[in-house]
Amino acid sequence: METQSTDQENILRLLLSGQEKNIVLGLQLAESQRIDIADLLQDIDILCEWWLGKDKINEITDKLVQIVGIEEIAKGNAGFDRIPPQIKYMLNLKELSLPYNQINTLPLEIGTLKKLIRLSLGHSKLSSLPSEIGCLAQLRELNLTYSQLHFIPPEIGHLKKLLKLFLYENHLTTLPSEIWQCSELKELLLSYNKLNTLPPEIGNLFQLESLDLSHNQLQSIPLTIGNLSQLQRLDLSNNQLYSLPAEISNLKKLKRLSLRQNQFVSLLREIGQLESIEELILGDNQLCSFPQEISKLNQLTQLIIYHNQLRTLPEEIGNLTQLRRLHLKNNQIEVLPEEISRLINLEYLDLGKNPISDSEKVKIKSLLPNCEIYF
């Protein structure tokens, strides 16, 4: 299939060169390869009309060689409702970026684009992918966000060089087991789907640096999450989690952890071993007490615990000397410990909708004279 497409591309270049000897050679090659010139030109007519538009059809002769040899297509919001099968002639294509179009299906011929490195079709009407997607052996980035996908073909596991996979805002209830064979993945974004479980094989993604599973229906996280030793960003917000596995303490490079809007009433001690964490988001849970383990996170710059049931903060809060922003809105806090004065880098403190007396507000302001405070 690829050899024939290459022959067709070469013949087209000869026919459109404008030189008599090349045209003759092109016709001879077509005859020897049993390639129907009429069919070939009709295919190219379709490709040019798709690429140039009907109103520019007169430009085909001048532009065709450039079109066939093009390496990048980036046309967002261009009114495309399809990708024609004739795209198979664009064998040099390395990037195909058509976001914000009305494309609802991919041609099987997409698999002939062996040089493709980046495929971006976000904000489309795609509801399925052909198995030929697995033929894109050089693919590094696949962006199918804000589409209507209900499943991913198992052939995605053939994309051994894939570094970025963006599938958020779809209708996925499960993922093929083969997806965990994409062991070079660095970014995996799966938010706003309908996933309710994660298999242990997620731990095979040893190179993963960013994992977004927010806005799903997860009730638990597998122990193998601890295998993701390169992970720097983990978003588990808006799920149905009430606990985390102790193995999360292995994520020594984790810088950002979001557990917002789950069902946590407490946090495990191991969270205090996330030595690189800079941003911890715990808002919209049911925490009744401040997890003392947090006081060990000496790299923390932002701590968000709004909309919980906190009544007090421990004296150890003063250990978070790198903290710049502290969000405690909508809790049951009445007083803050004097040790909060040790937060010399604190720039923003939100204590809104807490039962804090006027005298306590005065004291807090005196303890943090350089901080912007909201009551």
Automatic annotation (TrEMBL):
GO terms for cellular component: cytoplasm. PROSITE patterns: LRR (PS51450). Gene3D superfamilies: Ribonuclease Inhibitor. The keyword Glycoprotein does not apply. Residues 201-307 form the Disease resistance R13L4/SHOC-2-like LRR domain. The keyword Metal-binding does not apply. Keywords: Leucine-rich repeat, Repeat. It comes from the Bacteria. PANTHER family: LEUCINE-RICH REPEAT-CONTAINING PROTEIN, PTHR48051. This is Leucine-rich repeat domain-containing protein. It comes from Xanthocytophaga agilis.
